[in-house]
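Pasting as-is:
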Amino acid sequence: MSSVARRMIVMTLLRFAAAGLSLAMKPTQKIADARERPDLNAMIPQQIGEWKIDTSIVPIEPSPDVRAFLDKIYNQTLSRTYVHRDGERIMLSIAYGGDQSDNLKMHAPEICYVAQGFEVLGAAVGALGTQYGDLPVKRLFAVRGSRNEPITYWVVVGDKATPAGIMQKLAQVSYGLTGKVPDGFLVRMSSISHDTADAYRRHEDFIKAMLGAMSEKNRLRITGRLGA
């Protein structure tokens, strides 16, 4: 047998070995199977401090193709608009996915908004101080024509809140190395405003009020365990 033939056989065997190792290390235990299935509609109070649901605004349903795509990623979604007694409005969107493996992961707002024709600007990661600890959030604003929409959001992978992007990826990998497939939440609020600083302050007040109005069990589901 020639040396070239031997090398080809060795390379083929190595490919099979790598494929087998990859399959053996593939996470199979879904955390969601051992947890109570969340009910987003019941988890989030209809009255949050001085905010209440604006029943005059009916959420627009996505197109059938977009809905089919979202159904592959999320098991549940919730969309509400809350209005403050002073007339200010905040749009709240929460999505839950039982499978947050590397193949199925939360659809970041940056991608969603661009797909709807927005330009996404000013993305910045920060820590939002709450009465329960620091919550890692991402802030950005989306622009389309005269519409300026400041956005604050965070992602929960398993039991850990994390900014979207590389930290989210590392959280998924960390679970994968233990053989577990994490579930996850994406929590987003936005408002229509050209004063982004004031909008982010409003978002912060709303988040603190929302967390304070929730039961401990439900709060931990959508924030994970926060550091002090």
